[in-house]
From TrEMBL:
One Pfam family it belongs to: Peptidase_M20
Record organism: Roseinatronobacter alkalisoli
Keyword Hydrolase: yes
Keyword check for Hydrolase: yes
InterPro entries named in the record: Amidohydrolase, Bact_exopeptidase_dim_dom, Peptidase_M20
Protein name in the entry: Amidohydrolase
Lineage, uppermost ranks: Bacteria, Pseudomonadati, Pseudomonadota, Alphaproteobacteria, Rhodobacterales
Record key words, sorted: Hydrolase
PANTHER family assigned to the protein according to its UniProt record, in alphabetical order: CLAN MH, FAMILY M20, PEPTIDASE T-LIKE METALLOPEPTIDASE (PTHR11014:SF169), PEPTIDASE M20 FAMILY MEMBER (PTHR11014)
Amino acid sequence: MTDPLVRLRHDLHRHPDLSGNEGPTARRITAFLHECGPARIVDGLGGHGVAAIFEGPEDGLTVMFRAELDALPIQERGDIFHRSGREGVAHLCGHDGHMAILAGLARNLADDPPRAGRVILLFQPAEETGEGARAVLANPRFTPLRPDWAFALHNMPGLALGHLAVAAGPAACASVGLRLRLNGREAHAAQPETGQSPAPVLQQLLAWVQQFQPGQDGRLATLCHLNMGQPAFGIAPAQAELWITLRTITDPALDAFERELRGLTETLARQYRLDVRISRHDHFNASINDPAAAAIVARAAAKLDMPPGDFTLPMRASEDFGAFSATARTALFFLGAGLDVPSLHNPDYDFPDALIAPAVRLFRTILDECQQV
Ligand SMILES: [Zn+2]
Ligand SMILES: [Zn+2]
């Protein structure tokens, strides 16, 4: 194997890091970037984030491309040559491939620098927890780098290899996880009326979740974890815990959906005299594509004869890239990883190396298109 980008991808795959702990991966990337001679490298962005800045000879707009540094806390099952060397941690979302593509763009810019303006290649931490993009944006070191345009791709199983899906408007859903902890009073199972059991509240919360199944009105509620009492027939329990993930197409819709579930939980808890504690986890903004940014991606793909793919947008899963639309005209788009491959986050998933070279060409063409707008 001779392609250095494929070698880099396999090397990153062998050495995965979890969200927030991407130091070793960031160091590998930084070493590669140094060889490409950017004007500057900024590190420590929102944790272990790294940005390489390439500058053109003339003033102009700033265009950012983003890849993600983190892997997942899932044991890899596939028996591939470049298998993860870390127990219980693996690149099963293809972020290793996204990094190799951005590294390829860095090499391309070293050979053929931008004609004007700046190009930022951002290797962002903690995408899988939904925290990384917001942490980068909140970091004062990122303020002088804020882009005018920002682009990211995600590889997508179920979409034909190398086919592209992009559209103006919603690209990936907003989501949030709510952990609901209920606490009442334990009783003997023979006298449940003397205690305060969370069971009736659980029943009603489960019925509420059941109303929001796929294909309804864009709101999706998923019960992810449930626990009540102890495994003992003699006890009417006091405690229960539910983890529910809420998903919507827009951020305001998610706020309203979350208020509805919190309101219902608090009302039921009062009615059944239970204490309730609610905490919020894994919040992702919706990714909404700017029409002009999406049009640039579509034009670049057409120039390269990349076929448009058959894929329903928005993607139901979330992507924290949407946070950058607060500061730039953004587009998140999807590149097919093949029809007959395991899904993202599956223990057998491995990013297809065949996507690296066409994706580098696509990013470069997007950059050239931005400079003509
Ligand atoms: Zn993922
Ligand atoms: Zn991902």
